[in-house]
Structure formats: structure tokens, C-alpha cells
Amino acid sequence: MQSGLRSMETSHKTMVILRCKLILVGDACVGKTALTQSFVSGGTTYPKNYLMTIGAEFNVKQVTIPETNVIVELFIYDCAGQSIFNQLDLNSKYYENASAVMVVYNVANRDSLLSCNKWVSGVKAIQNSGVPLVGAFVGNKCEFRDGSIDSRAEVDILEAKETAESLGMTYFETSAANNIGVDAPFQYIAEEFYRRYEETVQTTGQGI
Q: Where are the transmembrane segments (predicted)?
């Protein structure tokens, strides 16, 4: 499922619904599941204890595109992050036909940033459509950037932004624990997916 389109009648107007397959990748313990659960629940759910993701967890959330009659339905695959060299092969079945990717690292763990290139490369290797993926690069646990001498952040924001740019992705920082900036990367992916859909329709007459 790369994308889909359907319509939904409301009392005022017909809403057009686009479907976007989004995969979340990154090392274990960076907060992918917490980020997803916080977004899907509207900030009401945050896992108190760490539970290892096996394979992938699946969620669906609708995102309204401002000033349009369009809703992007995000089909979110939260992929496991343990043992990166093994998981790249195990996760490959979830990567197929993805429309967007969100790579997540922990700002307090430099190694998780260094792994991002491998995660993104693994995803791109599975793609054979020739259509560039919509990409968001997320530094989670930004509560550790408190600006004090006791700050636990190991990754400089400038370095992280440069890494994101080198991968052709847009950079965000979030705190799933404090529900800070959680919606922004998902909203960006939905809006960028819609923008590219519109461009493709205008150019070819077909959706992506």
C-alpha cells in the first residue's frame, strides 16, 4: 500500500481521504513507540515502562490538511529497533510500499544518531518505485536539552540538522514524555505527502 484515495460524506462537504504508509525506524529505546502512542492518543497515553517492540506495531491516525477538504490517513508502522544489523532484514517486509519514513534518535545518546544513516539506507534499499520518500528526522527526548550544566544531551542540534539535511529529511525535536512537539513531524509528513500527491496528479493525472 503506497497510497490510496477514498471519499467520506459529512453534513457540510465531501472529505477526500488519502492513505499514506509511514514507517518509524531507529535504535531501541529512542522512544519510537512512546512518540507514536502520544501522537495517536492526542497526548493522553504515554507508556510508563519500556516494552520491547517485536516486529512492528501498527496504528492509524487521520490528519486534516488545513484549508482543504483532504484528510491524510497515516498507517503507522512502528518498527523494532533491537540489534540493528539483524533488524534491517527482519523489518524489510514492513518497509515495502512505504510512502514516508520517520527516523528517530535520542538526543541523549550519540550512538543512536550515528545509526540513523544505516536505518534510512536500509529503508531506501527496499524502495523500487523511484519516488522519493517523504522523510522526517526526529530527535526525541528533548527534555534533556535543559540548558544547564547537568544537561544529558550528547548531540548538538546543528550536527543533527546537518545529518538530517544530508539524508534529504526535515528535522524536528520532540519530547514524548512531556508531549512537546509530538504532532509536528506527523503533521509535516501528512502535509508533504498531500503536496506531492497534488503535484503528481497535476503532472501525470495519477496519484503517487
A: none
